[in-house]
Fold this sequence. Notes:
Layout: E1 16-20, H1 26-34, E2 38-43, H2 46-56, E3 68-73, E4 86-92, H3 101-111, E5 112-123, H4 125-134, H5 137-140, H6 151-159, E6 163-171, H7 176-184, H8 193-208, H9 211-224, E7 227-234
Parallel strand pairs: 1-2, 1-4, 2-3, 4-5
Antiparallel strand pairs: 5-7, 6-7
Helix pairs in contact: 4-7, 7-8
Amino acid sequence: MKTVDFVRLPLKPNDIVLDLGCGEGRHVISAYLEADVQSVGVDLSLDDLKITRERFVAFDEPENGAKSFGLSSASALELPFTDNTFDKIICSEVLEHIPDYHRALVEIERVLKPGGLFCASVPRRWPEQICWALSEGYYNVPGGHLRIFRSNELREEIEQLGFKHYHHHWAHALHVPLWWLKCLFWENRDTNWLVTQYHRFLVWDLMENPALTRILEKCMNPFMGKSVVMYFRKDAKS
């Protein structure tokens, strides 16, 4: 399930791409498959990186010397890369988990090349507020969400670091009811019948990708997309 639209974040041959907070690998693997790039995933969780490595095996193209794949455990506040390393950076559903997220943004600016592209996504404010209202456990779990962003304020904060915003969209409207149900039945969210049935529907939708649900989600995203996805270009003079 991709949040980033690679039409809006176009990857070119020989690009070096960073997925910061790559988790279990959805975007770092997707970037590897999208083009002949060096795709690098960074996360603090060794368990998540292990899952990413295991998932990547099915997609590896060892005969293609034009692309590479790498993973590293590191903090977003102190990235182990030199200035101006990456052509593209993805930071999807990560900033809401980081206490000093502004420092992470400063690091992103540091390691992105002048003229490079940056995509950030965070939970949309009003669906997220309902989750917080329904369950304290949703945001009090270890590593959970620490804040609810106002997208305009986050956009301005990123622009102040020398980025120019060029596009935004919303994503994953069909996933909003799942999280509302999980929060409503938080204590038994893994076994509740409504939660499990809706989850089955989402898995079916992901695997089958029918036209009906694609159209439905496209129509719903502007109103209740779970994520707001923003695209920026770093000042070429930086």
